[in-house]
Amino acid sequence: MFPMDARSILKSKGSDVVTIDGSASIAQVVELLAEHGLGAVVVSADGVHIDGIISERDVARGLATDGPELLGQPVSRHMTSEVMTCNPGDSVAELMTLMTDRRIRHLPVEVDGEMTGIISIGDVVKMRVAELEIEAEQMLEYLRGR
Question: 6-144 — its CATH code?
């Protein structure tokens, strides 16, 4: 059985990350979310270093407080600046715990301060289900005496 970690998730899904500059408008981030079917976008001036993250939740909260004027405001005003990240070797169990405890749905993967991918809670659940299926099959093989 191969290790079930952030690295294996990225290997399975790919490491492309959609980013947006903090000076872009909320309207632009909404378009990007819709275009790519995403729940969050990493805010990065260079596409490598993480400046923040902005999610559908952030947009909804902004609409509640600022109304339609929100759409013209910069992403940097509404993004989360303190972004939780993970390492490629972090296990699926560690990722699940972090995401559950911090109530986050998106976790950029970093190596030496540079972003190498992003993992969603859906990616983690999919990998955990795969883990459970492998474990169940191994138990059945053991019980069959193989």
Answer: 3.10.580.10
